[in-house]
Amino acid sequence: MTDSAAVRRRVLSWPWAVGIDAVLVVVFAAIGRASHEHSLSVLGVLETAWPFLAGLVAGWMLLRAWKAPTAPLRTGALLVVVTVALGMVLRVVSGGTTAVAFIIVATVTLLAFLVGWRGIAVLVARLRARR
Would you kindly state where each structural domain of the chain is located, as residue ranges? Predict the structure, then answer.
């Protein structure tokens, strides 16, 4: 195991990583609803978030993300691909829309969220390991 792989394994256990990912997907949905002046009720946010939460769960399973839950690219970036792709398909199937601008915004936002927190977590773990 490389030093960076060892650091990633020590950063967080996978249940925490799943929880952080899910919270960030819900935050993404809430931001989107707020920017379009939709209700921020719990049910409203969950109505927007569910396709992406389903995509996130599928991504975790398909990628076996629990093996490297905090890897920014191997896990985070690939989770974004699965989450956005399946989320958009589920939106269309359930009667929603998927404008190109929305696909771009969703991808960029979820990249920042799902890769970003992992990058910060790995950086913090590396800094702590140096002490």
Answer: 3-130
* Residue whose structure tokens are 């949905």: 29
Least trusted range by pLDDT, from 42-46, 80-84, 102-106, 112-116: 42-46
Is the confidence at residue 14, as pLDDT, over 90? yes
Single pTM value for the model: 0.88
1 in helix, strand or coil? coil
**Are the C-beta atoms of residues 92 and 61 closer than 8 Å to each other?**
no
DSSP state at residue 74: I
Query: At 36, is the pLDDT very low, low, confident or very high (cuts 50, 70, 90)?
Result: confident
List, as one string, the DSSP characters of 21-68: HHHHHHHHHHHHHHHTT----HHHHHHHHHHHHHHHHHHHHHHTGGGS
Q: What angle in degrees, to the nearest 10, is found between the helix axes of 14-35 and 42-63?
A: 140
pLDDT in tens, 88-101: 999 999 998 899 99
Nearest C-alpha neighbor of 7 from the set 93, 117, 123: 123
Q: What does the block give as tokens for 27?
A: 């935050």
